[in-house]
Design a protein that fits this description.
This protein has a single domain (about 5-280), classed as LigB-like (Protocatechuate 4,5-dioxygenase, Chain B). Helix content is about 35%, strand content about 20%. It has ten helices and ten strands. It starts with a strand and ends with a strand. About 50% of the residues are buried. The mean pLDDT is about 95.
Length: about 280
């Protein structure tokens, strides 16, 4: 059967993608950011996942105020890099895993998660930047990717508890798929940041560190955080962290923290990263 072996949490800062694409990774401002992912690139090369389920949020590339799915799963054969206003990122087209994606979609709907099934969708920096951080800039991505988009842009976003339970349902779905596949789940976005208003540029290292600690030690503490706590402590865009809880819910109760990285500033955010492996993996 298919199995989830690990989870990756990472920020998906658009400026990180621009630094990669424009050859600025060795500049003093950006070099510490990319150095923080050297371990991760070696780790994932050794893990060799067959499929990545990548939980991210769309930034008005595939969806808009005309259509706002709370949860959407990409079931297509491939997903092109989106044009976010300055041309698509020069990265490979994302190859999907439609058989597994459709199986997950069916299982989730029967488990009473109302998934939006997407058969054509361009993917923006929310998805491609995490792939670049973990794989560099290859000619093609080394494994299939299932995009799973979560609405954290337009109120109301789903709760952390709902996202954690979605992860639990994804775990059940993957483990009922008969093909022998090694799956890694990415939860992306965050950490603390605010893009507008008097608190623009907010970074709360204490909150971010506690959230990272709890991913291993006490995930239910993160699951219990209400929306107002994200707003107060992590800024208006800090709610993106609920997507990390989809990843955590898809793992076993007992996990080991393999690696952690945190750096400020990266553009106007605190950049966070964690790798968790199932104890049984």
């Amino acid at each position: 059967m298919a199995r989830i072996v690990a989870g990756v949490g990472t920020s998906h800062v658009p400026a990180v993608g621009a630094a990669l694409d424009l050859g600025k990774t060795a500049e003093p401002y950006w070099a510490p950011v990319f150095a923080g992912y050297e371990f991760s690139k070696k780790w994932i090369e050794e893990i060799k996942p067959d499929v990545i389920i990548l939980v991210y949020n769309d930034h008005a590339s595939a969806f808009s105020l005309e259509l706002i799915p709370t949860f959407a799963i990409g079931c297509a054969d491939e997903f092109a890099p989106a044009d976010e206003g300055w041309g698509p990122r020069p990265v490979p087209t994302v190859k999907g895993a439609p058989d597994l994606a459709w199986h997950i979609a069916q299982s989730l709907v029967l488990d009473e998660f109302d998934m939006t099934i997407v058969n054509k969708m361009d993917v923006d920096h929310g998805l491609t930047v995490p792939l670049s951080l973990m794989f560099g800039q290859p000619e093609q991505w080394p494994c299939a990717v299932i995009p799973l988009a979560v609405n954290v842009v337009q109120y109301p976003p789903p709760t952390g508890n709902r996202c954690f339970n979605l992860g639990r349902a994804i775990k059940k779905a993957v483990e009922s798929f008969p093909e022998d596949l090694k799956v890694v789940v990415f939860g992306t976005g965050g950490m603390s940041h605010q893009l507008q208003g008097p608190r623009a540029g907010l970074i709360n290292r204490e909150f971010d560190t506690r959230f990272l600690d709890n991913m291993t030690k006490d995930p239910k503490a993160n699951v219990a955080l209400p929306h107002i706590e994200y707003l107060r402590e992590a800024g208006s865009e800090g709610v993106e962290l609920v997507m990390w809880l989809v990843m955590r819910g898809a793992l076993s109760d007992d996990v080991r923290e393999v690696y952690r990285f945190y750096h400020v500033p990266a553009s106007n955010t605190g950049l966070g990263h964690i790798i968790l492996e199932n104890e049984s993996a």
